[in-house]
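cron nightly-structures :: item 1 of 1
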Amino acid sequence: MQRHRNSDQTVEHQRTGAEAAGFKIDRVVADHGVSRISTRLAERPEGKRLFDILRSGDTLVVRWIDRLGRNYGDVCDTIREFMRRGVVIRTVINGLTFDGATRNIASVSGPRFSERVPDVAQSDNS
């Protein structure tokens, strides 16, 4: 899943980066111009498509986990739902893997998780 904000984050740039990192990309799903923070991935048109496409045994490659939601809760819920469905999530940046064995998403993601996902610092300090 790819959202892009500037010329360095175009769909083609992200795909090229993933392929350069050794990932084989079969299909690209991208949000274009979706910017409302309250809209969960599963409720956005391309997010719904992604949930419909992926099956157990599939691997979802994302540039970074912030591509999977607009805030901490959305990202965690999305990761958990895909893992529940048997979908493995791999990130291009830092080479993280989220699979059925993953229990604590933040511990796998490390400190960059709180830097890259909106609302994390605010949620953690509440």
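cron nightly-structures :: done
Residues 20 and 116 are 22 Å apart (CA to CA).
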